[in-house]
Design brief:
This is Transcriptional regulator. The chain has 78 residues and is mainly α. It contains five helices and no strands. Helix 2 crosses helix 4 and helix 4 runs antiparallel to helix 5.
């Protein structure tokens, strides 16, 4: 299972971070933190905005939200 950072990195690809940030309404520095795994957003909305800006399909967006759910709400047995 990929992390949010891994999925975002794959979606952003070779696009310029500041352009993706502008298209998604996320600050470039914040997007860099998401890409590095340093930070997760409080909800999944910024991630879906970034994914949409990168042309992600519904399945990719669902995987991204699932990864966010796993990381932001880890189960008790992890």
């Amino acid at each position: 299972m990929d992390t949010v950072a891994q999925q975002l990195t794959r979606l952003v690809g070779d696009r310029l971070v500041f352009i993706v940030a502008a298209r998604s309404g996320v600050w470039p520095g914040t997007l860099q933190k998401y890409l590095s795994g340093e930070e997760l957003p409080a909800d999944s909305a910024p991630l879906t905005a970034v994914g949409t800006a990168c042309g992600a399909d519904e399945a990719q967006l669902a995987e991204l939200v699932d990864a966010w759910n796993r990381q932001s709400r880890p189960s008790a047995d992890q």
